[in-house]
Amino acid sequence: MPLWREYFQFYTILLFTCAVHRVYTEKYYPILLWHSAGETCCDTEGTTYVNFITKEMGNDVHVRSVKMGNTTEDDFTNSLVMHPFQQIEIVCNKLKTNEAYKNGYNGIGLSQGALFLRGLAETCPYPPMKNLISLGGPHQGVYQYPRCSQHIGEAQCKLLKLKINLLAYHRVFQRSISPLTYWHDDINEFRYKRGSSFLAIINNENYYNPDYVKNLQSLKRLVLVKYINDISVIPNESTQFGFRDGYGRVIRMEDTELYQKDRIGLKKMKEDGKLMMLDAPMAHLDLNEKWFRENLMSILKEV
After folding, report:
1. Which residues, including other chains, have CB under 8 Å from residue 147's CB and lie 6 or more apart?
2. pLDDT digits (tens, 9 = 90+) for 226-263
3. Which residues are catalytic?
4. DSSP codes, 27-95
5. Is-contact 41 67, C-beta < 8 A?
6. How far apart are CA 229 and CA 264, in angstroms?
7. How far apart are CA 197 and CA 85, in angstroms?
8. CB 84 within 8 A of CB 178
9. pLDDT digits (tens, 9 = 90+) for 97-121
């Protein structure tokens, strides 16, 4: 046999073997993790989840954490100052050019990262997000600084909230402070809807965008995890699309205008069995491996 033919056969077998190995080692959908505000892709928060998932699923899954910038310092800063729509656009473009995600992926969002992943699901239909697991994501926004009462006391927190309500929707702050784009004034709903440059938009509360509904409903499952002992997302009912009014009264998701008018398709998703709501007996973003394994791991292992 000519030498060139032997080489040809050898490399053909080698390429075939590598292709088979790749299919085997990535039999699950890849996972995209998006960290919370003021954290990075590669600090304790992000690596804890990545390491746990990798331990549970082995080499059979591709797991990556969003990194917004060239360095972890950039990632930290951008999580606080870059507008959510700009971050989402960057992530969307990266996913479109990454072969690993072309057949779809699962999203896991931590707090702010969960809200941004929902924005990604609504505005970036390709590649398709299969399941979105929201861990403590403020989907109805926040109306208080995280752990405020523990830091400065209840009385000072009330004053701080009133001041932020007056300043949050100024264009300068909406463009330069990411968390203020999902600040939800619980006293003046009109002020929130008029001034919010992100949350009110992806919640279809100003202008109705049917593509947001269609894209979100294309998910196989939207999983909303609320941490029972959460003092970071205030009110923590927001993590399951609930809220509290200016008098502190709880408004369940089903009683909100967002749900009753089905502005982003939540009612239809619930009717179709695509909406999953879980209460986790932990503090904000605490990883209880046993709880995660029993409640969420099977979703990540669906093919």
Report:
1. 231, 232
2. 999 999 999 999 999 999 988 889 999 999 999 999 99
3. 111, 230, 284
4. -SPPEEEE--TT--TTSHHHHHHHHHHHHHHGGGS-EEE---SSSHHHHHHHHHHS-HHHHHHHHHHHH
5. yes
6. 28
7. 9
8. yes
9. 999 999 999 999 999 999 999 999 9
